[in-house]
Design a protein that fits this description.
The protein has about 675 residues and is of the alpha/beta class. The chain has 21 helices and 10 strands. Strand 9 and strand 10 form a beta hairpin.
């Protein structure tokens, strides 16, 4: 895939820092029109796209021991027996290769000896059998290595995934929302796959190195002068492989974003999200034309690249051919001068040809190994960062539901935001109260609720839970007492029953308890319409999966919070997608939870829904500007709450025409 070509980023060493800047992309009229020009994608997997472009031959060679050692440590921690089996099989193949070459030399010695042909053939038969045995042994050991590698790879991938996910699920929410940390996690997710790939690439490197060492050892035994000959023919070939690869990667880097945008157009034309506007607005033919133009631009680049690659390959092959000619010329001189016999020369030719092939494999495998290691290093860094950013678990444990939560001059600013979302806010919430947070969009209501739940920690001020600063709590024990109905609630792609059960996953899965929670939230009607009831998969992307409407999903979220049965319920715009009747019923059920002793934190744009709150707090640009009961705020001169309430009430009260009275009644019912 195009997006899997990594770059150097911060990983120094085998990269040339002077050329760490991506080449300028194509000047595409389509990109200028649709995307405002050539822009790079800001995602984790784009972090390392320059590394393979900038890798040098010497840098690659220097990095081999470190890369292989990484893979060995990973495999050793996962399945030592499989690792030892792979190592033994690869070393055995190398010994088999060396033995096979020596046996081949004995065959040639017998065949080139003086005497009748039948006698020479009979004399060569024992050595031929040894050659066959060596070949069979190599084949068996190759199979053993393949089987052990196949056993090892999925275990390594699982271990890498768990190693990443275990600390990430405990990271502070504010840190999880930091752009740099998100990019690191994005890249680290590719690192879990890279951990698996590094095993096979390391095996390939080991195989090539052992085979090269075996061939070199045989040549040194046959005649010391033959070893430099191997290097003479092999090094130009390896250098040509690196140079050719870098030329190809440079083109990829130049056109990478262009290809991503073209792929994005394809997804927009075939996906569900844009399907309606693609058809109704006629965007389909328009975007298809742009897709074709971008494809034609890339076709032109591919033709140019093919010509350039042909020239590079020709030059590389010419140098390699000259080196080969010089090598065989030297071999001929040694043969003519009687320095080596004909059998040794024949064996040397076979060894040199095999070594050249193995060197090409070595270069390719190290190249792939280096690429994957960059993502794996990001995985290592993400694991370390996640552990450093994790919520502390050694704090004070709440033994019971909080009786009082007090904000004392609390200020909180989101990462990368210049102004506070919550600014010097103080108030108190007591057990069993209904507290409403109201205000315009962006005033800090949801942030305040998340601070109260312990999802964020204040930058300044204190949040005291029964007198204990929230920073000193084991917040997992606080979460045990909180149910969250978020305005962007999760639509879990699981069964309907599991969607509700995730409200308290530590409890056994009980269909009867789930049905009771669904009935309380009026989600039982939704479940009754599903083809398989609680076992219906709520994801259209799967066979027989079902999609729910926004209102139906909201009822499922209410049921999930009900199933949690927590003493603190945070309801952030819990009825935005419900119809009028369902909205009134939902607010009534949430209010009744307070009668059972629950503390309700209600966030809503519907002022009428807040009338039963014990205290209403009005926020504006992160600051608490007024508070009181519904009646107190309505009668307070200059009250923001009263002005907003009247504005909403007037939508129903001042409707012209004969239906005005009916609409006034309807407005009263909605406000009730």
């Amino acid at each position: 895939m195009w997006h899997r070509f990594p770059s150097a980023g911060r990983h120094a060493g085998p990269v040339r820092r002077a050329s760490g800047r991506r080449p300028k992309g194509p000047d595409s009229a389509v990109e200028r029109e649709l995307f405002g020009g050539h822009r790079e994608l800001d995602t984790g997997y784009a972090r390392h796209e320059m590394a393979r472009l900038n890798i040098s031959f010497r840098g690659m060679a220097r990095r081999i021991p470190h890369l292989v050692a990484q893979s060995v440590r990973l495999a050793w921690a996962t399945d030592r027996a499989a690792l030892l089996l792979v190592a033994g099989a690869e070393l055995g193949q190398g010994l088999g290769t060396a033995f096979g070459l020596l046996a081949t030399n004995r065959v040639l010695v017998e065949l080139f000896a003086a005497g009748p042909t039948p006698e020479r053939v009979r004399a060569a038969l024992p050595s031929l059998l040894w050659v066959a045995c060596a070949s069979a042994l190599i084949a068996v050991l190759r199979g053993v290595s393949t089987a052990a590698t196949g056993r090892l790879e999925p275990k390594v991938e699982r271990a890498a995934n768990v190693r990443l996910l275990r600390p990430v699920i405990h990271v502070e929410l504010a840190d999880l929302e930091r752009a740099e940390f998100r990019r690191l996690l994005d890249s680290a997710r590719y690192g879990t796959d890279s951990a698996r790939r590094m095993i096979s690439h390391s095996v390939g490197v080991l195989n090539a190195l052992v085979s090269l060492a075996a061939a070199a050892g045989v040549l040194a035994v046959l005649h010391p002068a033959l070893l430099p000959m191997l290097l003479l023919i092999a090094l130009p070939k390896g250098y040509g492989t690196i140079r050719s690869a870098r030329r190809m990667y440079q083109s990829i880097q130049v056109w990478l974003e262009h290809l991503r945008k073209r792929h994005q157009l394809s997804q927009l034309l075939t996906g569900q999200e844009a399907a309606a506007e693609v058809r109704v607005h006629g965007a389909g033919p328009h975007l298809l034309g742009h897709f074709e133009r971008m494809s034609q631009e890339h076709e032109t680049e591919q033709a140019r690249l093919a010509r350039a690659e042909a020239a590079t390959d020709l030059a590389s092959s010419a140098v390699s051919g000259l080196a080969t000619a010089a090598t065989y010329g030297l071999l001929g001189l040694l043969l003519q001068g009687g320095v080596i016999p004909l059998a040794v020369a024949g064996t040397a030719v076979i060894a040199i040809r095999n070594s050249t092939s193995q060197l090409g494999q070595l270069v390719r495998q190290v190249n792939h190994l280096y690429e994957q290691s960059l993502f794996y290093l990001d995985l290592e860094k993400a694991v370390s960062n996640a552990a450093d950013r994790a919520m502390p678990t050694d704090g004070h444990v709440l033994k019971r539901a909080p009786q009082e939560i007090r904000f004392d001059h609390v200020t909180f600013t989101y990462p990368d935001r210049p102004t506070p979302a919550v600014d010097d806010v103080s108030f108190t919430v007591r057990q069993g109260e209904i507290v409403a947070l109201v205000g315009d969009n962006g005033c800090g209501k949801s942030t305040t609720a998340r601070l109260l739940a312990g999802l964020y920690l204040p930058d300044r001020g204190h949040i005291l839970v029964d007198g204990t600063d929230i920073r000193e709590l084991d917040r997992a024990s606080l979460f045990q007492h909180v149910a969250l109905i978020d305005q962007s609630f999760m639509e879990w792609p699981f069964t309907a029953g599991k969607n509700i059960h995730l409200g308290r996953p530590s409890d056994p899965y009980s269909p009867s308890d789930i049905h009771r929670a669904a009935a309380y939230a009026e989600a039982d009607a939704v479940i009754a319409e599903l083809p398989q009831g609680l076992n219906t998969l709520l994801d259209r992307n799967y066979h027989q999966g079902v999609g729910l409407s926004g209102g139906q999903w909201q009822r499922m979220a209410l049921a999930r919070a009900t199933f949690r049965a927590a003493p603190i319920v945070i309801a952030d715009e819990p009825t935005a997608a419900l119809d009028a009747r369902s909205e009134i019923a939902a607010f009534e059920r949430i209010r009744r939870l307070a009668d059972q002793g629950a503390t309700i934190i209600l966030i809503s744009h519907r002022m009428a829904s807040c009338r039963h709150a014990d205290t209403i707090y009005v926020l504006d640009h992160g600051r608490l500007v007024e508070h009181g009961t519904h009646t107190e705020l309505l009668t307070r001169p200059g009250s923001r709450y009263a002005a907003a309430y009247k504005l909403q009430a007037d939508q129903y009260a001042h409707v012209p025409g004969p239906a005005a009275a009916a609409n006034v009644d309807r407005g009263d019912r909605l406000r009730g």
